[in-house]
Amino acid sequence: MHNVVIVGSGCAGNTAAIYTARANLKPLVVAGHEPGGQLSLTTLVENYPGFPEGINGPDLVENMKKQAEVFGAEFLHGSVVDTDFSTRPFRLSIEGDWIETRTVIVASGASARWLGLPSELALIGKGVSSCATCDGFFYRGKKIMVIGGGDSAMEEANFLSRFGSEVTVVHRREEFRASKIMLDRARHNTKIKFLLNTVIEEIYDAAKKVVTGVRLRNVKTDAVWDQDVDGFFLAIGHIPNTKVFKGQIETDADGYIVSKGGARTNIAGVFHAGDVQDRTYRQAVTAAGAGCRAAMEAERFLEAEGH
Ligand code: NAP
Predict the structure, then answer these.
(1) 187 CA distance to ligand 1 middle (Å)
(2) Is 244 exposed, middle or buried (0-12, 13-18, 19+ CB in 10 A)?
(3) Which of 50, 139, 232, 251 sits most deeply, having the most CB atoms within 10 A of its CB?
(4) How far apart are the C-alpha atoms of 86 and 93, rounded to whole Å?
(5) Distance from C-alpha of 229 to C-alpha of 147, rounded to nearest angstrom
(6) d(Cα 111, Cα 33) in Å, to the nearest integer?
(7) Ligand 1 pocket test, candidate residues 177, 183, 217, 234, most atoms within 8 A of CB
(8) Tell me: the pLDDT tens digits for 252-305?
């Protein structure tokens, strides 16, 4: 019987692990299908307090893990595939092995969103990617396209301009979600071009099993044209990882956990932390703060229950 099971090993989960481990609760962290979370897919993080020169995302999250392990947190490879929160102790199936716990901290984050084109699905890993940091290297001297109008799209376009001969940012509107500083940086980058009011209709060439180009459409003029592309990078947001909690933890229409105040969910003893609940801030530092909050609430919950 565990005191605390933490689902997810990103910034939120690892911070919750540090706090609950220091409280002597011996937390078990289920690492999930993206160990380290989104920080493990990024490069330099310049806005996490305490690092005036910045720190690499994978280093930051690995340091957090080590810090949690110093205090006795245990990390488990694998993902939660099923849950039963209808009675206590709560039960979670880790790849088929059921475990029991008095409290749960859900820090399972959010995963990359895809356009949903059949050709996109067929070409994932063959020129279609949702991770510039992971795959940018393969497109040295090649034509790269980035889809999206948020900070991620600007960040990825800038990063990919180190490799590609040219980077085209395709965005479906004229207005951007990206912050001014990120947008200006991309706009001042001579390798980056913008195609606005434009959507992707098709990615070529699924039959050849490699990306060779795309069919684009201007949503204002309805003009349709083809463009050569070698690397196609999605940066169109994320979907919360709450599928395994469906029907148990209350979520909103998009699948984000509905907070009942603090770190509480609709189930007493089950807490939320990080991007799985937060559609507004979604920063490493806010996820870490949420992990701390969830840990403190789990601690108090256990204390009140006499554990
Ligand atoms: P986001 O802000 O939600 O932006 C997603 C973009 O993708 C939007 O421009 C959206 O278009 C577009 N989009 C969504 N679905 C689409 C579809 N089906 N087809 C075409 N376009 C689609 O997501 P994000 O850029 O990943 O950023 C998430 C959060 O992380 C933000 O709070 C951001 O500030 C933060 N972030 C910060 C940094 C940094 O500071 N270093 C870096 C990355 C991310 P519409 O605008 O038309 O909806």
Answers:
(1) 17
(2) middle
(3) 232
(4) 14
(5) 12
(6) 10
(7) 177
(8) 998 999 999 999 999 999 999 999 999 888 889 999 999 999 999 999 999 999
